[in-house]
């Protein structure tokens, strides 16, 4: 081959080698960026899953509380419910009942 204006085959080899190193460096940088991004996303996904589980538990607790309140509203005029409230919360008894207290405690 004839020598080119920049020195021929040796100059082409040097340019090819430096381009190869530059390409490898760019690829390594992209790989590092991809790995860092992947790890960041995985931690965000794990945190979101943890938050989802907490919110799910809280939603279930609220649903149970709502069911209890709905039951109380539905049965607020029921005589048995009124009697239970009078006994448990107000300490009332029926006129013909006898109350025994345990003096042992």
Can you characterise this structure?
The protein has two helices and no strands. It has 105 residues and is an all-alpha fold. The protein has one domain. The mean pLDDT is 86.
How do the helices and strands line up, and which of them pair or pack?
Blueprint: H1 9-74, H2 79-88
Strand content: under 5%
Total strands: the figure is 0
Distance between the termini: 112 Å
Structural shape: rod-shaped
H and E string: HH
Helicity range: over 70%
Q: Which class best fits the helix and strand makeup?
A: mainly alpha
Identify the notable features of this structure and list them briefly:
single chain, 105 residues, mainly alpha, 2 helices, rod-shaped
Short description:
The chain is mostly helical and 105 residues long. 72% of the residues lie in helices and 0% in strands.
